[in-house]
TrEMBL record, chain A:
Belongs to the binding-protein-dependent transport system permease family. The keyword Hydrolase does not apply. GO terms for biological process: transmembrane transport. The keyword Cell membrane applies. It is found in: Cell membrane. This is ABC transporter permease. It comes from Lentzea aerocolonigenes (Lechevalieria aerocolonigenes). It is a multi-pass membrane protein.
Automatic annotation (TrEMBL), chain B:
Residues 1-25 form the signal peptide. PROSITE patterns: PROKAR_LIPOPROTEIN, TAT. This is ABC transporter substrate-binding protein. Coiled coil: none annotated. Keywords: Signal. It holds the Pfam family SBP_bac_1.
């Protein structure tokens, strides 16, 4: 009896929280399905008087399609490169007695604590000096550079928790460091890699700051600055912006759903350690 | 499982990386201004609103169709543009042309040698009034302008049985009558992302009472915000505060427009650009009247913000960009732009046709009647001074009895901006 009352209470509270949580998302979707004239005449908060998919079409043709592709071109190589580099670094830092490795790890972590805002101007000037300003390469390089510290830190913690015996056994069997990394450490790190990949994908896909710092042409802008560009100087078509936001959210949601299982198990493995 | 599977996935991802790597190289080569080699001048545009974007695209297309020099347009969000403009201008390879407005900011960049002297474009602009020339200096070419005034719906005024006022006393009477009918007389959209709209009220009270020359001196830092003359303009403002939308500092400009269109508020002091936020069928019902005259001895001044282009002094495409500026300043270029815009903006060329609606014709006459044109608070001062005005005026709207403190704080904040 008691348990059923508390169960009901739990569901009531959790249900209310979920509804509150989903309310903004519902508002965005409803706005996306209204026409501009309806919003202009009745206001954003009014009961919808129209139903149209025109906002999605507008957002897609007003630079949405190109921006989406640019985002993919930036995000996929960046996630891959940063995980490849940071897992190699983490392997070296966690499994070998490298002199000063604690300092290196702390330095990497310290770099992450710097607010990126103070680096905007130097980064923009640097990309210009390298001749890659306003190219997607610049954005990839910057994103990889800024992600490495954190990914390495997480992965080395994870790899350090692996039992030494596995590595020793492999060494006895004649495996070199590269083989151990490739055949034993990497496969064992998969949950952490998957979790990090999902996280990195969301961060990079949703980044705005670096994109507008190193890019200037609308033809190379990824999806977040393109969304911002849908806002006018004075007047914004909220239905188109809402539709654009919905479109922009699809890839991250898809990636997250795909990696959800790994994500949770990755977190759990870290916790038990 | 899966080592093999894992390797296969890795290999596939690697291949994908290679492909996308080359693809992004191709993209950068074709579009990055850094790799720019062809004789095409680039316009960096902040006209990201759909209507304005369509207009500049049409102008560029008309120019390119003449088979002379070629330009391309690159639109970024106006907010991104505003914050990134300094880094665009100081970069080694900046865009050639920029959309912007004349004012203190441009003068600053001109002094640093970052802007191109376009005096020879002005040689072709003999028809332009002296006022535009003075405003633009040597570095700016104005193409469009618009006006500020009280906008209202004709049908609503007819329904309430009221007519537009001719002076301040009539204006206050009108507010009183409307409030008696249960309507909020004055709309205000100084909340959300548009606190700057309150500055329009400040500008107008100041140019109606103290005149445009004093207003400009004040904004340039040669007068003080805690001056008794500035304090005096808040007396009539206080008089109409009870008639102002109490939600005015909570809602943004776009919502305030909706409130006026729905008849919840009766009139709304705003720029003609608000028409972009109105449904097309409502536009025919819109009319306006000028901010009422308070002191008839003060020469009539109106706010008429002007927009146009300036060029970077580092541009390697001087010939192309000047050809474009010349075209944008002609009757033909301006008419192409106006025809493809939302239709409430005015051309700067005195002979260019506007969109021809009754509203726009009246707006053009409205500006021509003025002895003096001011730009707008941030344009006559600077974008750095605007936030000090926003803070002061929004506070005044909420706590009008704190006026003395507000003005002292404002003066202090302004001094910091001027001395930096």
């Amino acid at each position: 009896m008691r348990s059923s009352t508390s169960g009901r209470l739990f569901h009531a509270v959790a249900g209310t929280i979920s509804v509150l949580w989903l309310l903004p998302i519902a508002a965005v979707i409803i706005t996306a399905l209204r026409s501009f004239d309806d919003i202009a005449a009745n206001g954003l908060a009014a009961v919808p008087q129209s139903f149209t998919f025109a906002g999605f079409g507008d957002a897609w043709t007003n630079g949405g399609a190109g921006a989406m592709w640019n985002s993919v071109l930036v995000t996929v190589p960046t996630v891959f490169l940063s995980l490849a580099l940071s897992s190699a670094a983490a392997y070296a830092l966690s499994r070998f007695e490298i002199p000063g490795r604690r300092t290196i790890i702390l330095l990497m972590l310290a770099g992450n604590l710097l607010p990126p805002q103070i680096l905007l101007v130097p980064v923009s000037k640097l990309t210009e000096l390298l001749g890659i300003y306003d190219t997607l390469i610049a954005l990839i390089v910057v994103q990889v550079g800024f992600g490495l510290g954190f990914y390495t830190f997480v992965l080395q913690g994870f790899m350090r928790a692996m039992p030494n015996e596995v590595q020793e056994a492999a060494t006895i069997d004649g495996a070199g460091p590269v083989q151990i990394f490739w055949r034993i450490v990497l496969p064992m790190t998969r949950p952490a890699l998957a979790a990090l990949a999902a996280l990195a994908f969301t961060w990079i896909f949703n980044d705005l700051l670096w994109a507008i710092t190193v890019l200037r042409s609308s033809s190379v802008m990824p999806v977040t600055p393109a969304l911002l560009a849908l806002q006018g100087q004075y007047v914004s078509n909220w239905n188109v912006i809402a539709a654009g936001s919905v479109i922009a959210a699809v890839p991250t949601v898809a990636v997250f759903l795909r990696f959800q299982r790994h994500f949770i198990s990755g977190l759990a493995v870290g916790a038990v350690k | 499982m899966d080592r093999r599977h894992f390797l296969r996935v890795t290999a596939a991802a690697g291949a994908g990386l290679l492909v996308s790597g080359t693809a992004s190289c191709a993209t950068s080569a074709s579009s990055g201004p850094v790799a720019q080699t062809a004789g095409t001048a680039t316009i960096q545009s902040n006209l990201s609103a759909p209507a304005a974007k369509a207009a500049i695209d049409a102008l560029v297309k008309a120019f390119n169709d003449r088979k002379g020099s070629q330009v391309s347009v690159n639109t970024v969000a106006s907010e991104t543009f505003r914050t990134q403009l300094p880094s665009y201008l100081t970069s080694a390879n900046p865009p050639d042309l920029f959309t912007w407005y004349p004012g203190a900011l441009l003068t600053g960049y001109e002094k640093k040698g970052l802007l191109l002297d376009v005096s020879d474009v002005w040689q072709t602009m003999g028809d332009y009034p002296q006022a535009f020339k003075t405003l633009s200096g040597k570095v700016f070419v104005p193409t469009t302008t618009y006006w500020w005034s009280f906008f209202y719906r004709k049908s609503n005024f007819a329904r309430w049985g009221v007519t537009p006022p001719n002076n301040w006393t009539e204006f206050v009477e009108l507010c009183k009558t409307l409030q008696g009918k249960g309507v909020i007389p004055l709309g205000m959209g100084a909340g959300s992302d548009s606190p700057w709209t309150a500055s329009a009220w400040f500008d107008y009270f100041n140019i109606r009472i103290n005149g445009a020359p004093f207003h400009r001196e004040l904004l340039a830092g040669r007068q003080r915000f805690d001056d008794p003359k500035v304090k005096a303009i808040f007396t009539p403002w206080r008089e109409i505060l009870p008639y102002t939308d109490p939600n005015g500092t909570a809602i943004g400009f776009q919502e305030a427009t909706t409130a006026m269109l729905q008849g919840r508020t009766a009139m709304f002091l705003t720029g003609a650009f608000f028409a972009d936020a109105a449904p097309k069928d409502a536009l025919e019902d819109i009319d306006f009247f000028r901010f009422p005259i308070i002191d008839p001895k003060v020469p009539l001044a109106e706010e008429g913000p002007t927009d146009g282009f300036f060029a970077s002094s580092k541009s390697p495409h001087v010939k192309e960009l000047k050809e474009f500026l010349t075209y944008a300043a002609t009757v033909e270029g301006q008419e192409v732009y106006i025809k493809n815009s939302s239709g409430t903006i005015l051309p700067t060329h005195p002979k260019a046709k506007d969109s021809g609606t009754a509203l726009v014709k009246k707006g053009r006459k409205h500006l021509e009647e003025a002895a003096e044109i001011t730009q707008f608070f941030n344009r006559d001062s600077s974008d750095a001074l605007q936030p000090t005005a926003d803070a002061a005026l929004v506070k005044f709207l909420q706590q009008p009895d704190q006026l003395d403190t507000i003005l002292t704080t404002w003066q202090k904040a302004a001094e910091q901006v001027w001395s930096s």
